[in-house]
Amino acid sequence: MEQQQFECGDHIECIDVRRDVQGRYYSQLNDIQDAFPGAARFRIEGKGILFLEDESGQRYSPNRIAFYPGKVVEIVLASQISYSSSDSIHSSHHIQHPSPESAKMIISLPTSPDSGLDHALDTNPLSPLITTLLARRHTSYDSTSSTSLTSISRLSTVELAQQIALLQQQLDSHRVVQESQHAEQMAEFTHLIQLHAEAKQRDEEMHRLVQQANDRLVIVQRKVEAILVQNYELHE
């Protein structure tokens, strides 16, 4: 049976790992919390370990982490996370520290829903109030998430409509430019045809005038010849 080694402070213990339907080993959070009560997060060489997710991207229930053979997994307790969060909030907002009794109750409350929350609520005198606050927090989170997704969807739809309108304007503008260029080309072509027709008409008129001139010249030449013949006959 494969085992994963865990440590929390000076406490080191090897815990049997489980195997899924695909034959992959993993460590289940419930098994770890049996040996290390309050375990909430895990690290290896200072780097956090993510909980495994199924094919749909959701965490397995109960939470589980991958199997790391030959490595020691460091356990981070929920109380350590609570202390860290309280110190961060105090340093940024300068909030007054709670009383020792309230601090104990807050620290004993796990930050992960799957890290022994039911046991903490059963032993905490403020469990009804805490349960109500958690329910409101989850409801608010779900509502905020839904509103954010709806806003993103609407924003994407508006942006898409704007892009389509802009593309349609560009197409209309391009079509107008093409129609204008086509009209100009047709007008220029018609003008060239007209110029060609006028030039042809002038050439025909010139040819007619030249022909008339030649005909007149022939007539004049014949008259001159006739006159010369008459003069010659008179002299004889």
TrEMBL record:
Q: What is this protein called?
A: Uncharacterized protein
Q: State the organism named in the record.
A: Podila minutissima
